[in-house]
Automatic annotation (TrEMBL), chain A:
Residues passing through the membrane, by range: 13-37, 57-80, 92-108, 114-137, 149-168, 197-215, 244-262, 324-343
Keyword Aminoacyl-tRNA synthetase assigned: no
Main location: membrane
Keyword entries, A-Z: Cell membrane, Membrane, Transmembrane, Transmembrane helix
InterPro entries: ABC_transp_permease (IPR001851)
Bilayer topology: Multi-pass membrane protein
Protein name per UniProt: Sugar ABC transporter permease
TrEMBL record, chain B:
GO cellular component: plasma membrane
Protein name listed in UniProt: ABC transporter permease
Gene source species: Thalassospira povalilytica
GO molecular-function terms, A-Z: transmembrane transporter activity
InterPro entries from the UniProt entry: ABC_transp_permease
Length: 359, 306
């Protein structure tokens, strides 16, 4: 019989090993799924995970896709540590894009160098505003932030759809549901010629470092770690749960809003009904893959970005449906959560009786 | 008045998937397990039901497949959270992400397929009675099943011995364990029931509500079902009322246009989601009521002391 025996202390080795193990098991299961779909599993895995990044342009695209994932996941991880489950980052991303993008549309003939910084600020405000609703409802009315933040995602997406179908539709377009293209002053500069790597990617690295410092050096970072690990103790010392809810939701919302703004003022360049292939949801997996640590999230973001690139390539070259990406992401999260058990427990074979009783 | 009967009929069809999924989740939560993967289980149920019906031509087989698919999905969740003690919130999210991807993958072969909708009950003479006939005696069998399920759940939790044990497990797993009940086994069963009902709710969408498959066709109904359980404060009677209220709200957009109300369609589509938020706020702000009715151990992992 297989049993789980609690470890006295979390295994440090397993903290690092378990994500690697989870990725390996995902690849094995992925190969089996490909085989079921009538593809050579090795070819398919190669197409999915190696081919997209075997040239420099591919690697640059990896950074482009990882940028929103990393920025959002750093914010979400702070909340997850404190048991604040903001799963509406997709909606906050959308609101950030609407707020910041709206400014670019309002000043669509501007050449001012102030436009882009102002868009950053509005993007972050838009995301934080959208996240402040679940924060208010949780702290004031005790409403579960999981459900409210998710419901607001649907509302934000519909609102964006209304805007680009109606008042913000490009008057010079061909009746497509799209806004005007943003003015050049409202577009993120490319930081590496010949690629789509933009200023937002550099900011993502900055967010990682800032998140790391916040978590390891600041008082609120300390409180976040304690609240998550020992909520009772935290209450005794007088940490205010409400402040944690507000702080983590506003921070997570602002970062998601910023990530949304980077998408529309970077790779997309305008507002359109769909501005994200679910970055806000994938970022949840990134946060766990990175073990809720900003530096881990950097690696997690790159790995999840690869599943998007691999999915696109597999669709073109192997004719696999794009949904394979989501499937891989779900399976990876399953294995991550399953492997997590190894950090807290030892796997023992044999029954309790065989080992003798230890009280 | 001739609009009334079709209106009531659309309310019933919009409410049924919510009622099925929420009844299952209510039982799961009463045992102390919070499975946030309802949306994913519904989607997998929807595609399993549709794929099997379209391939075999038998809706009965399709419905059975949806139940099995829902149960298998819930078993993934149960294994991770109950056997491996993984975090329930994160695992539920994973189940939804997985379900969206898996159903879209399997469903990519079935986009554009057409099937006959589930046949409606037809009792010669009675089903033809004006107003009452089509509403009470002209539905398909899943509609009657959804009502039977919620009544059955109500009876089970309030009157049956097994239901009392289930509630004991949800309210105090250590005491239930000490008396000698197998907490993990009971929670497995409750989670599987939740999966079966979510699968059925999904199958209703793809076999009857809109007899076709479309990616992500649940459109958040799994999450609304979760909110309904809170709204009902874990009581089946209120769940029935809540599901029909939400059904009513979600069909309002279809009828608003006809009634000459010109609001952009996107705002009408927001209604069910906004209503969910508002309802959650109203119910949750009564903290005493939530504390009184919510299963005390909800979302907590159980590990018998050694």
């Amino acid at each position: 019989m297989v049993r789980l025996e609690p470890r006295r202390q979390h295994s440090q080795a397993m903290v690092y090993l378990s994500p690697v193990l989870a990725i390996f098991m995902t690849l094995v299961v992925g190969g089996i799924i490909f085989a079921f779909m009538g593809k050579n599993p090795f070819d398919a895995l190669y197409t999915f995970f190696i081919l997209p990044i075997n040239n420099s342009y591919g690697i640059s695209e990896l950074f482009v896709k990882a940028t929103p994932l990393v920025i959002i996941a750093v914010g979400l991880a702070m909340g997850f540590r404190a048991n604040v489950w903001n799963i509406g980052a997709e909606g906050q991303l959308t609101m950030g894009a609407i707020f910041g993008g709206g400014l670019a549309l309002y000043f669509h003939d501007s050449e001012s160098a102030l436009l882009l910084p102002a868009m950053f600020v509005l993007g972050a405000i838009g995301g934080a505003f959208w996240a402040s609703i679940p924060a208010l409802l949780r702290t004031k009315f005790n409403a579960n932030e999981i459900l409210t933040s998710l419901m607001l995602t649907y509302v934000a997406t519909l609102f964006l759809s209304f805007l680009v179908h109606g008042p913000w539709r490009n008057p010079e377009g061909f009746n497509f549901p799209e806004s005007r293209p943003f003015p050049d002053a409202g577009l993120l500069p490319i930081i590496y010629d010949g690629t789509r790597v933009h200023l937002g990617t550099a900011i993502a690295v900055f967010v990682v470092i800032a998140g790391w410092l916040l978590l390891s050096k600041s008082v609120i970072g300390f409180q976040l770690r304690v609240v998550g690990k020992a909520p009772q103790a935290a209450r005794h010392v007088g940490f205010r749960q409400k402040r944690m809810v507000w702080f983590t939701l506003l921070l997570g919302g602002a970062l998601a809003g910023l990530a949304g703004l980077f998408e529309v003022s970077g790779p997309i360049g305008q507002l359109q009904p769909q501005i994200s292939p679910g970055y806000g949801f994938t970022a949840i997996i990134v946060a766990f893959l990175g073990r809720l640590h900003p530096v881990g999230i950097l690696f997690g973001g790159l790995i999840m970005a690869l599943t998007y690139l691999g999915g696109e390539l597999a669709q073109i070259t192997l004719g696999l449906p794009n949904a394979v990406t989501g499937l891989f992401q779900g399976i990876l999260l399953f294995f991550l959560l399953a492997c997590d058990v190894l950090t807290k427990y030892r796997i023992r074979f044999g029954s309790i009786a065989a080992k003798g009783r230890t009280a | 008045m001739e609009w009334l009967v079709p209106f009531i009929l659309t309310v019933i069809t919009a409410s049924t998937p919510l009622l099925l999924a929420a009844s299952g989740e209510l039982v799961t939560e009463k045992s102390g397990v919070l499975n946030l993967g309802v949306e994913g289980m519904m989607l997998v149920g929807a595609i399993a039901g549709f794929a099997v019906t379209a391939s075999s031509g038998s809706a009965i087989l399709g419905i059975l497949a949806a139940v099995v698919a829902g149960v298998l999905m819930s078993l993934i969740f149960a294994f991770l959270t109950l056997s491996l003690m993984a975090n329930q919130v994160a695992t539920g999210l994973a189940l939804t992400i997985f379900g969206i991807g898996f159903s879209a993958l399997v469903g990519s072969k079935f986009v554009g397929f057409a099937i006959d909708p589930l046949p409606a009950l037809s009792i010669p003479g009675i089903s033809a009675i004006p107003v009452i006939g089509p509403i009470l005696f002209g539905q398909d069998f899943l509609v009657y099943l959804s009502i039977a399920v919620v009544i059955g759940v109500g009876w089970f939790l309030a009157k049956s011995r097994a239901g009392l044990v289930l509630k004991a497990v949800g309210d105090s797993h250590h005491s239930a364990h000490a008396i000698g009940y197998s907490v993990i086994k009971i929670r497995y069963l409750a989670t599987m029931f939740g999966g079966a009902m979510a699968g059925l709710g999904g199958a209703y969408l793809s076999l009857s509500y809109t007899p076709m498959w479309a990616e992500n066709m649940t459109a958040g109904r799994g999450w609304i079902a979760l909110a309904l359980v809170v709204f009902a404060t874990w009581r089946p009677g209120r769940l029935l009322a809540g599901a029909y209220m939400f059904g009513l709200i979600s069909v309002m957009q279809l009828h608003a246009q006809g009634a000459g109300i010109h609001v952009p369609s996107q705002f009408m589509s927001m209604l069910p989601y906004l209503a969910t938020v508002i309802v959650l706020v109203i119910i949750s702000s009564d903290r005493a009521k939530i504390r009184l009715n919510a299963p005390a151990c909800i979302g907590q992992a159980f590990r018998p002391a050694q």
